[in-house]
């Protein structure tokens, strides 16, 4: 579990989550937001209109990223990230295909790390 490959994957995923999470929380985004197709823009506008969904998601992403970067509760962080990464993938699959590469990278990195930590999840499926 502590191979150099696993360490790199964990750090890259943690950094991506912290940056994209801060993008949702901070008043001025770190990375400029791309122009979204109409359906995707409408969906994101409705999430933003709730006043809490994007902020909670951003805080969760920063929290999960911090756990991965500090190597604390990694297995817990990965399980928390699983539904988020599936939703990121589905959003880009159905609403904004231009961001599919980043969505695939997040899902694949999460899957690799879950596989590497599988021994910690085995008891859940017995």
TrEMBL record:
This is DoxX protein. The lineage of its organism: Bacteria, Pseudomonadati, Bacteroidota, Flavobacteriia, Flavobacteriales. The chain crosses the membrane at residues 43-66, 73-94, 100-118. It comes from Flavobacterium fontis. The keyword Membrane applies. Keywords: Membrane, Transmembrane, Transmembrane helix.
